[in-house]
Amino acid sequence: MDLQNQMKKAVAEAAVNEVTSNMIVGLGSGSTAAIMIKTLANKIKTGELKEIRGVPTSFQSEVLALELGIPLIDLVSVDQIDLAIDGADEVNPAYQLIKGGGACHVREKLVASRANKLLIVVDQTKLVKNLNEDFPLPVEVIPSAWKQVKDVIEDMDAQCKLRMAEKKAGPVVTDEGNLILDVLFNGGIK
């Protein structure tokens, strides 16, 4: 296992160590969150954790949790989540971050907003001095407004592109049925 995957595994395991029985847990999205979900499922399977219910932040995390036997509840069914564990695309020294590279950040933010505690799990490749110098800021927009929003963003001294899918013709469509604009502000976000 390479160093990056070792780091992902270590932070995922550390995050799951914060989970106690009878918790409602927000299940994040992305590669590190997937390791966390697998680790959580193993602790449930071995009986180390009991009465855990997960709230997925994406279709990806929902499918994985179901395949691994983690009981799920819908976001609309909970008023609060004990602990949410999610990844990020970039984190700066002030602990500000960019999320949404996986095109599911609306639900990620909804889960985070209901969480009593939010843990962000990242490996060293996600740590940056300044946000948005290399990784674009994803902006989720309703399909009928993408061009108008793109024009407004470009007027703010930024490069803005509609994210196109790689394995289908056309744009990426989020879990909520929206589109993603990838934005790079000149000089990044400081």
UniProtKB/TrEMBL annotation:
| Entry GO terms, CC | cytosol
Which chain regions cross the lipid bilayer?
A: none
The cross-references to InterPro entries, in alphabetical order and at most eight, read: NagB/RpiA_transferase-like, Ribose5P_isomerase_type_A
- The answer to whether keyword Phosphoprotein applies is no
Keyword Isomerase applies: yes
Show the CDD domains listed in the entry.
Answer: RPI_A
UniProt GO molecular function: ribose-5-phosphate isomerase activity
Which protein is depicted? ribose-5-phosphate isomerase
Species of the source: marine metagenome
Q: What is the lineage of its organism?
A: unclassified sequences, metagenomes, ecological metagenomes
